[in-house]
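Input record (one chain):
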Amino acid sequence: MAVLGTSVAEIVQHAGGLLFDYGIAGWDLIVLGPADTRCRALQILGTHTFTPDSALSSSVNQAALSGEDPQIHVVVGAEGLFRDQPRMNEAVSELFDCNCADVMLWSNPNETDLPRMTKYRMSNAARAFKAQALCAAGTTPLDGDAHTEFFIPVRTSGGRIAVECCG
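The corresponding structure, as predicted from the sequence alone:
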């Protein structure tokens, strides 16, 4: 699973439970983000972290993934990151085969988004680890259901993430 965000706090807020649960189930977790990604908060969740510059090396998949199948099966990220930074699609397309991956984006949900959002219900352990990661990131939980994270499933087109369907 590859996760892309603009800050550690954002990544933990929106996808911390998902990351922990998938990691504990044996998935390899790659987080691509700003320079502060190499921090305790993401270590608590069990991720391998890279800055975008280091991730652009062709060996990122092999270096980060210990399994026999180094292919990324899920890409998770901030909707605004893909919508506001057109180069992000190109970089993600270079790194991962988005035609073979499920793509889920987080956003600040509003009433119009709720019907198309997927709810991820965290395990009890994920909630506990996410709380510790939030503390390490120096932030507090978002308002709302502390047991659920929300994602918008997104289609891909020609290996690119079709962000226009999200906003």
